[in-house]
Amino acid sequence: MQRRLCGRRVHPIGLGCMNLSWAYGDPPSREGCLRLLNEALDLGYDHLDTANIYGKGANEELLANAVMHRRDEFLLASKTGIVVDGPRRGVDCSPAAIAESLDASLRRLGTDHIDLFYMHRFDPKVPVADSVGAMIRAMEAGKIGAYGVSEWSSDHIRQAHAVHPMAAVQTEYSLWTRNVELGVLQATRELGIALVAFSPVARGALGGRLKDPSSLAENDLRRSHPRFSAENWPRNLALLDRFDALASSAGVKPAQLALAWLLAQSAHVHAIPGTTDLGHLHENFAAPTCEVPQAIIHQAGELINQQTVSGHRYPEVMRGTIDTEDFV
Fold it and tell me: Per the database record, which ranges form the NADP-dependent oxidoreductase domain (predicted)?
């Protein structure tokens, strides 16, 4: 059941830690976060994913406080490149910025090394070889074990990999977001790079519980995403209701069917669903062991895909930062 990532074997379901600090409404209490992270490790999660911008560093500090005393039990991934500093906003993958950001992440995390360090977005202002060079120097210094990229196009992935082999590409991939199928899925498979899917349960839409986005907190980023808008949501909800029924017919939870479909796409695919709910934590981890008939997997893909979903995956203001191939 384990899959290869950064030269080791890990469970194909990792834990995306972002929403423990930021993005989907108010985060849980500190005590709740500490409990969830430790229960994840107790359960067998061995791949934790964070980033320097999640809660402006708060998410990395949370991991330091919660689980760094169990550092040898998990693969630690973090990211650099997105700048959110008052009026300073954008992408900076210059060698100096990468080096400075890495040292800051190590301090917040309370560790001397990060196993997998991603460039969070593609920076067109910096030559790919220069950015990768900074990652090589970080590996030589023992500060990171391997590097990866997030939301990069297949062409730029190939360019970076030619400078120095990368370990992973992280991008959004789920039943209703198929952009990687335009090039990244094939490129990573050919090059032997792990594909780590974030938002594999479609930002909660495939979790079987979200029925009315207007009930989301005012500071929930999904309120700005087109697929959750008043215009598009009714059509998407009709698909989701049918999806929930399909999962029920297979005797699994909707999120488990979504994850089973994703892992079935290729043996090099990993998923990092996030959750603040202990029940969902257990359900997600069990997804690879659920016996879902291939016919159901196929039906899920036919029901929810790029052609049937209404709305773009990102609002216009965010689309300009995404390098991954897009559908016209």
Answer: 12-288
